[in-house]
Write a structure and sequence with these properties.
The complex is a heterodimer of chains A (about 150) and B (about 200). Chain A is mainly alpha-helical and about 150 residues long. Chain A contains four helices and no strands. Chain A is about 45% helix and about 0% strand. By secondary structure, chain B is mostly helical. Chain B folds into two domains: about 90 residues; about 70 residues, Winged helix-like DNA-binding domain superfamily/Winged helix DNA-binding domain (Arc Repressor Mutant, subunit A). Chain B is globular. The N terminus of chain B is likely disordered. Classes of the chains: A mainly alpha (about 150), B mainly alpha (about 200). At the A-B interface, helix 1 and helix 2 of A face helix 2, helix 3, helix 6, helix 7 and helix 9 of B.
């Protein structure tokens, strides 16, 4: 009995499937007909665009973060040797002329924005030379300028 | 590129080479080695399998327009996911059969859900001329087949029309072989009872 049902099922399925012929189908439309390369590229385009934007952003940040070192003043010209003499205001004679010359010429031609005119603003060392003598027993901080008013009260 | 690495003759088999080759082919939008016929592999598969897949879908969903839509959607999904060369698909035929079965199952479920929320209407049946061309016994069997559950119908169609083995049916439907066996047995019992009533 079971074989009969299976045979009947096979025959019915074959008969129903046999009613569908190639001529009954709609015209063939392979999936590649619709602009396949464009679709493949569009999958990668967002990723590539994101990578490009990220790369540009990184380069932009690096350029902004990197600033050239400020031009060295004659009094603060770094000495090539790390000896304590580098702290001195007078350029060391061992400094190479190629480095010292541009800073010197720029300062002589036009004053830099950071440059301090010794004629108007006294340097601490000059102020220390011109200020009144400190009485004995009174201490004064070495960085205090004579132009700052003394604390009252 | 082919003569760039003479000291490493097996470089084409290396995973790095395959990965780079696949990436460059995907970016350029074309495969470096087209099929010998010049037509993409998925087009060959489309022309070779379309009719049989539409027949399979018709046996599941009963009407030809829906069956054609299902097959077209399955091919479109295959192309979207794996491209035209189908190199990344181990068994495209099994992939298509599984896709058609899943889509047919979704269609039948949607129909049953719609029937539950709408006023009673005529069930989707084969066209009248198609039914007229069938013998009465075949019409009875097909009507009884429509009364089975979707899973039972899938198993019977794959077993008695596609002539798949139990293991192949299990792989296609992603169920266990024991489930295939029990489902087929139960479906045949139900079919027998329904046919005896007629």
């Amino acid at each position: 009995m079971s074989a009969t049902v299976e045979d009947r099922l096979r025959e019915a399925l074959a008969a129903r499937a046999g009613q569908i012929t190639a001529g009954d189908l709609q015209p063939a439309a392979p999936p590649t007909r619709r602009a396949a390369p464009a679709r493949r590229r569009s999958r990668w385009a967002p990723a590539l665009a994101g990578l490009a934007v990220a790369a540009v952003a990184v380069i932009f940040v690096i350029v902004l973060a990197w600033r050239p070192p400020p031009p060295a003043l004659p009094g603060n010209a770094p000495s090539p040797s790390p000896s304590p003499s580098a702290v001195s205001a007078v350029p060391s004679p061992t400094a190479s002329p190629s480095r010292a010359r541009p800073a010197a010429t720029r300062d002589s031609s036009r004053p830099s924005r950071n440059a301090i005119d010794p004629a108007h603003v006294p340097t601490p060392s000059a102020a220390r030379r011109t200020e009144a003598p400190v009485p004995a027993g009174v201490t004064r901080p070495p960085t205090a300028l004579p132009t700052s008013p003394p604390p009252t009260g | 590129m082919t003569t760039a690495l003479p000291l490493f003759p097996g470089y084409r088999q290396s995973p790095l080479w395959r990965m780079l080759h696949r990436a460059t082919a995907a970016i350029s939008g074309s495969s470096a080695a087209p099929p010998p016929t010049g037509r993409p592999a998925i087009d060959e598969l489309y022309h070779a399998r379309r009719l049989s897949l539409v027949r399979l879908a018709v046996l599941m969903v009963d009407d030809k327009p829906t069956a054609e839509d299902i097959v077209q959607d399955v091919f479109a999904a295959l192309f979207r996911r794996h491209g035209a060369d189908l190199r990344s698909v181990s068994d495209p035929h099994a992939y298509l059969t599984t896709g058609v079965m899943n889509a047919a199952r979704s269609t039948l479920r949607r129909r049953r859900t719609a029937r539950a929320y709408r006023a009673p209407q005529a069930a989707i049946m084969p066209a009248a001329e198609d039914l007229a061309l069938l013998q009465e016994g075949d019409r009875d069997v097909l009507a009884a087949l429509g009364a089975l559950t979707v899973r039972q119908r899938q198993v019977l169609v794959l077993r008695y029309w596609s002539e798949l083995t139990e293991q192949e049916i299990a792989d296609t439907l992603r169920i266990s072989r024991g489930t295939v066996k029990s489902t087929a047995s139960r479906a045949l019992g139900t079919l027998r009872r329904l046919l005896d009533r007629r």
